[in-house]
Amino acid sequence: MSSNNVVMIRGGGDLGSGIAHKLHRSGFKVLILEVEQPKVIRRKVSFAPAVYDGQTTVEDVKAVKAVTEQEVHEIWSQGNIAVCVDPEASLIRAIKAAVVIDAVMAKKNTGTRRDMAPITIALGPGFEAGKDVDIVIETNRGHNLGRLIYDGCAEPNTGVPGSITGYAEERLLRSPCDGHISTVLNIGDEVTAGEIICYVDKVPVRSAIDGVIRGLIMNNLHVTKDCKLGDVDPRGIREYCFTISDKARTIAGAVLEAILSMQKG
């Protein structure tokens, strides 16, 4: 089988899933590689939850969990995205991808190499284009969001989340301690400032602002202190919780441009 249209994406969070969604609809065969217990915040617009549930759907595109190489090909033949637990990207040896994309968003390179595929792309800081990968995509909000970098690095990690209607750090939910999360509310629920959204062990985690819960990690997972647990969207528009974000769509378009420009030569 020709591998000219096979794309492997390391990381099935909201940005990696936005890319997967666009590439799938553009005719590529997409395989997402995930860790055993992904701590995805924006679960309703991410394909990573297929690791837990066996399958998941984002904006009418289905992703199905695969364990073997044969299952990956069966899922593709059914017109779906495949998701495998493969943090070391060992499947690259068996399935020769035309493109490998690092969408882990770890702010550092966790093992992606330029020799993994004919075309290698990485999102955000932690990579040097022309050395670690062929192309780096700028992920920092602002004028350069989605810019293709062929030489050098993306802007450094600011440590500050993107502002929405003037709220940045205030909209995030962070773990007050180590422990297991127990959710009280769900993605899409409206909240008011001070309302309890979840507990870590017995310690409550409250919203700092009014809004709607746009993201919240899966119940019962073990988290560490200061770990990001979720985010509250102050715009209060429930639909935004279940649709791919403007940022993800912009980055996905940039990735598609990068692939086509590299294939064109």
Write down how many β-strands occur, each being a DSSP E stretch of 2 or more residues: 17
CATH topology of the largest domain: Rossmann fold
What is the level-2 CATH architecture name of the largest domain?
3-Layer(aba) Sandwich
> How much of the residues is beta strand, in percent?
25-35%
Low-confidence stretches: none
Concise description?
By secondary structure, the protein is an alpha/beta fold.
Task: Walk me through the topology.
Blueprint lengths: L5 E5 L3 H12 L3 E6 L15 H4 L1 E4 L2 E5 L3 H9 L3 E5 L13 E4 L16 E5 L11 E3 L10 E2 L22 E3 L4 E5 L6 E2 L4 E5 L2 E4 L4 E6 L5 E2 L4 E6 L12 H19 L1
Parallel strand pairs: 1-2, 1-6, 2-5, 4-5, 6-7, 7-8
Antiparallel strand pairs: 3-4, 8-9, 10-17, 11-13, 11-16, 12-15, 13-14, 15-17
Helix pairs in contact: 1-4
Which key terms come to mind for this protein?
OB fold (Dihydrolipoamide Acetyltransferase, E2P), 9-stranded mixed sheet, single chain, 4 helices, 4-stranded antiparallel sheet, globular, 265 residues, alpha/beta
